[in-house]
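Exercise 7b. Backbone tokens:
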């Protein structure tokens, strides 16, 4: 009874987090695509759209797992679902990595114009999806890697088989996570050492890079939320048998990470955020408040003018007449 209640609650949380991910990822894509020709045509927005598509792919894989949660048979369909879920996790983490690579090119290698082109970033996006499909297929060919996991009732890369799960988590999480930290450490080092040669242009670039670094740190933390619990389960299973709820909770953390990323992608993009707030009428209310504040300020100024003493007004008028007589 306790086990059934646990899976009922976790299934509801999976569905809730997946719906949040789908909604905010779709909103971000639609706003960027709709305004692409006029205001959103940039490499950053291109990579943001790619990240949103990886979120939608992961959401589809999660929904497939939840819909077939009560089918504990190791069939070919189960292994295909496991392949889809594992490849979606790879595409998700490597979308972070290509953001880091592109940011490295923009911040440090900006002298090489070829590295800042749309063509190169499209190549990075294609590699993102190719790597996820390729390594997912390799795990599909390994007999014990992708299978039904009784403890979580899902078809995925089980953490109970140490060797395959360790290789899988190294590919899907550890390598991109460490590569992202390394690239962002180079960016941070570059931005801090550039303070020695400050000019107006370099100061503006430094402020922009530091702001970008704050967003980078946020996305690194989101990625860590998704991959660290599963990695801990893999390592602990090598030593002792972990409690059965940990299997589902480690996978739930991946969905939590995806939902947080969908929110971060929307609200960290100033243009998308502004358009989104306009859609829900919050921006209009803010503009009305600004107009009301300006009207109150104008009213206060007029009241202050009306309260000027009469002798001050007469003196001002006399001075003005005296100045005009001098001119004449």
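Sequence design result:
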């Amino acid at each position: 009874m306790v086990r059934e209640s646990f899976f009922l609650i976790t299934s509801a949380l999976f569905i809730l987090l997946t719906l949040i991910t789908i909604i905010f990822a779709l909103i971000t894509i639609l706003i960027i695509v709709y305004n692409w020709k006029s205001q959103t045509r940039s490499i950053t927005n291109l990579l943001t759209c790619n990240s949103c598509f990886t979120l939608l792919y992961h959401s589809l894989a999660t929904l497939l797992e939840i819909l077939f949660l009560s089918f504990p048979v190791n069939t070919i369909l189960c292994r295909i679902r496991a392949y889809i879920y594992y490849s979606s996790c790879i595409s998700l983490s490597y979308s972070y990595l290509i953001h880091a690579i592109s940011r490295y090119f923009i911040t440090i290698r900006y002298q090489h114009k070829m590295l800042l082109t749309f063509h190169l970033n499209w190549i990075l996006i294609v590699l993102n999806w190719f790597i996820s499909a390729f390594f997912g297929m390799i795990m599909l060919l390994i007999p014990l890697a992708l299978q039904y996991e009784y403890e979580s009732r899902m078809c995925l890369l089980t953490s109970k088989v140490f060797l395959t799960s360790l290789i899988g988590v190294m590919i899907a999480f550890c390598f991109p996570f460490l590569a992202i930290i390394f690239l962002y450490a180079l960016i941070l080092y570059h931005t801090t050492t550039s303070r020695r040669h400050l000019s107006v242009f370099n100061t503006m670039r430094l402020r922009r890079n530091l702001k970008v670094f704050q967003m980078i740190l946020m996305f690194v933390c989101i990625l860590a939320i998704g991959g660290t619990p599963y990695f801990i389960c893999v390592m602990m299973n090598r030593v002792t048998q972990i409690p059965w709820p940990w299997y589902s909770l480690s996978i739930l953390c991946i969905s939590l990470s995806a939902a947080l990323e969908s929110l971060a992608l929307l609200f960290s993009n100033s243009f998308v955020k502004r358009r989104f707030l306009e859609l829900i009428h919050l921006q209009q209310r803010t503009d009305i408040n600004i107009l009301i504040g300006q009207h109150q300020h104008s009213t206060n100024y007029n009241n202050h003018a009306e309260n000027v003493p009469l002798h001050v007004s007469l003196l001002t008028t006399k001075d003005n007449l005296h100045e005009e007589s001098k001119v004449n």
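Instructor comment: The first strand starts at residue 146 and ends at 149. The chain has one domain: 2-272.
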